[in-house]
Fold this sequence. Notes:
Strand order of the largest sheet: 6-7-8-3-9-10-12-11
Helix content: 25-40%
Radius of gyration: 22 Å
Shape: globular
CATH class of the largest domain: Alpha Beta
Order of helices and strands: EEEHEEHEHHHHHHEHEHEEHHEE
CATH architecture of the largest domain: 3-Layer(aba) Sandwich
Number of domains: 2
Largest sheet: 8 strands, mixed
CATH superfamily of the largest domain: P-loop containing nucleotide triphosphate hydrolases
Bound molecules: adenosine-5'-triphosphate, magnesium ion
Amino acid sequence: MRNARPSSGAREVVVREDSLCRVSYLSVDYRSEDGEVHALSSVSLEIRRKEILALVGESGCGKSTLALSIIGLLPAQNSRILSGQILFEGKDLLSLSGKQMQKIRGTGIAMIFQEPLSALHPVLKIREQLGEAISIRRSRQGGHSLDQVFSYKPRASEFRGPLKRLVNLPSRRRYPKEVEDEMIASLKLVRIPDPERILNQYPFELSGGMRQRVAIAMALSENPGLLIADEPTTALDVTTQAQVLRLMKELAEKGETSLLIITHDLGVAAQVADRIVVMYAGEVVEEATIQELFSRPLHPYTKALLACLPKGSKKDGPLGSIPGSIPDLRKSFEWCPFVERCQYAMERCGREHPALEGDERHSVSCFLYS
Ligand SMILES: Nc1ncnc2c1ncn2[C@@H]1O[C@H](COP(=O)(O)OP(=O)(O)OP(=O)(O)O)[C@@H](O)[C@H]1O
Ligand SMILES: [Mg+2]
């Protein structure tokens, strides 16, 4: 039994007034051939309205698992939520049915996936996918209803087989001019050259970077309350990356969208985020405002991450490497999970698990401060 995983309801959950999404004591396991992987261990964090929160940490520390938990897309076949709560606009997401959760995904939470292909339907043209995203948002805002938007009526000859129907349907749907114009504008925003041509293409006809940009355009078009962006800019060139980040920041500042941005790149976090959460081995180890974290990092892991940045440009580089590797997540940590790599480790760190403690501006889970 891992003492890092309190039973749900064991602690009081304090929700701030400006809270958009509150994750409390979330623990998630995956079943694998080698045993249970404890991907998240009692993770708590809050995404506030009008803010950009960055989630950073080394590969395999549970960032995508947290994102998939919030949007309700953990793989059903081998994942298990052991405990915890996710509140979004006051709704308890983990208690919703699949259909209710689908509705939230269409209107409240959108995600740009780490692998852009998984966000795009393989046999639908970009026009259909982007048109759908824009139409859903417009119908939500009292514009056109979906029925009006899809004025397409299939002919009898198109019902010969499911594959033929799927292939035929896309090119025959018609969107109102405003939707067509918005499709072009949103592709231009993410600097897709020749957007008219791209609209008529299938995802497999695009390069990885182009697919990533289409996925970003789609997510932004939905204008969600919460946009989760899992490594959204890694496939982009530096100029486009800066533009996409600026665009996301503008959206958040307009007060329409809060952003959870998952990144390996502390430079990206420093560029756009208001606050930052550092994860290690399935746990949150430090949480602070950007200014605090860069000027006064507390956790030895965060300090090591910062020390790995190229000298002279602390805020402009990807994470370097820290000696050693993250521990095997099949293990149960009844001690600090960073102990084996920590240059400040004390005897206590190897036998007790530190709790995340601090205040609004800065909290850390480390015995150096308790
Ligand atoms: N579908 C899955 N089945 C089994 N194990 C999984 C699955 N997805 C993730 N894991 C494991 O869960 C742990 C956390 O993975 P996760 O993908 O959340 O990490 P991450 O921080 O997003 O990493 P990266 O930065 O490489 O994307 C890892 O040990 C990973 O191997
Ligand atoms: Mg990931």
